[in-house]
Amino acid sequence: MSRKPTDNPFSGLLICGRCGRAVTVRKRRGGIPVNYVCNKYNQQGCIKDDIREGWGCNPHRVDFEYLNKTAVDYIRQFTEEEDLKGKIFQKLMSERRKTDSAEILRTLKNREKQLKKQINTLYDDRLNGILPDFLFSERSASIKKELESISKQLERHSDEDDEPNIDNLLQKMYADGISSEGINMLFGKILVYEPFEIEPQVMHDYDIDERSFRLLRDEGGLLFVQRRQWNTILH
User: Fold this and answer.
1) Which of 12, 73, 15, 11 is nearest to 197 (CA)?
2) How far apart are CA 195 and CA 210, in angstroms?
3) Which of 57, 12, 56, 58 is nearest to 33 (CA)?
4) What are residue 29's DSSP bridge partners?
5) pTM to 2 decimal places
6) Of the candidates 164, 163, 185, which has an alpha carbon nearest to the alpha carbon of residue 174?
7) Nearest Cα to 202, choosing from 42, 73, 20, 39?
8) Is 105 helix (H, G, I), strand (E, B) or coil?
9) pLDDT digits (tens, 9 = 90+) for 124-182
């Protein structure tokens, strides 16, 4: 599989399982992502609840090559089992549009509202002499970048296909390596957990089996959340 040097197929998909913020590219090499970290950790550093409640987060560092390989292995299940592909297609056609998209849109809009409020606060702090210009520029640039990502996600969720075809989805996935368009058609988000962060409610929210939940709880890892709930088929 080939890949364009600037390709970042997981843009906007990685979410920190602890704080809910985006997990974004921290380092690139030749235009290709090397790793990702939690955006809150990137801005505020490690957790300092003893100094300020809710400040900072854990790194939630994800290696790009590991993420890419894990995604490919996960998706390969769809291509190697014809019976599984048939069941998934039937489920896609029977479910059509349900509550998933509405929930994602609501979450994105709430986050967009929070970020716009943060921008306004930064402007006020700068005008009142509380925030130096260099800090204003750094923090506002980060917030604007996240707003741009949310805007793209909102547009994407508003234009979902009514009748998806599993073979077409998979062809898109493998045409030029994992593409952003292809992976976003299959997955709504990828939650990143460090050990002992995942809450029991997540097991029910995403229909995770007990063994997988314990593994995520004890070791941390990635939870691929499918755009439509196929979890019961994949177990």
Assistant:
1) 15
2) 16
3) 12
4) 32
5) 0.58
6) 185
7) 20
8) helix
9) 999 998 889 988 999 999 999 999 988 888 887 665 544 455 566 565 555 555 667 66
